[in-house]
Amino acid sequence: MSLEHAILVSLLERPASGYDLARRFDRSIGRFWTATHQQIYRVLKRMAADAWIVGEEIGQDGLPDKKVWSATPAGRAALIAWLRAPVQPEAVRHELAVKIRGAAFDDPAGRAALVAEVERYRADHEATLAGYLAGERGDFPDPDVLDARESLQHVVLRGGIAYERMVLAWLDDVLATLRDLDPPTRKATP
């Protein structure tokens, strides 16, 4: 997937300025595709040059004008062509998994450091899950009354929630396994 396709989806959902798109990426699209503000603005220029989007200057009281972007028919056609193309399975590259396998060749002190790293990694995923759940409560308070667009947005979010729960369960298993390898030593009582 390219950033262009993620932007087209967002603009077809609702026209937006570059700043608004960046906020959407930070808040919701970023759940499955990340982009910096600079990347978004650079790609918007390219998409405008390709006639996939068009910008309209909007005046603002007391603020500089802003450009609100909308997808053009050519942009929609490009998105449709991409939607209909086959998707290749993504290759998994997981540095932490390699470190976990490599821990067999480290000593207990090294594995203790790995436990701390896995705990940090787990805390990041726990925070991501909490953000997804908060977003779900805010964006989909009544999942039984969603239109087609909302239903598809929600199913993607549910996939993110399920993924984070799976990662957390795996990390709990990793931590238990690492701790079983090197249980804390107990001082003998006289």
Automatic annotation (TrEMBL):
Boundaries of every Transcription regulator PadR N-terminal domain copy: 7-79
Domain of life: Bacteria
Gene3D superfamilies to which the protein is assigned, alphabetical: 6.10.140.190, Winged helix-like DNA-binding domain superfamily/Winged helix DNA-binding domain (1.10.10.10)
InterPro entries: Tscrpt_reg_PadR_C, Tscrpt_reg_PadR_N, WH-like_DNA-bd_sf, WH_DNA-bd_sf
Domain Transcription regulator PadR C-terminal, residue spans: 92-179
Record flagged with keyword Disulfide bond: no
GO molecular function: DNA binding
Keywords of the record: DNA-binding
A Pfam match: Vir_act_alpha_C
Protein name listed in UniProt: DNA-binding PadR family transcriptional regulator
Organism (species): Micromonospora kangleipakensis
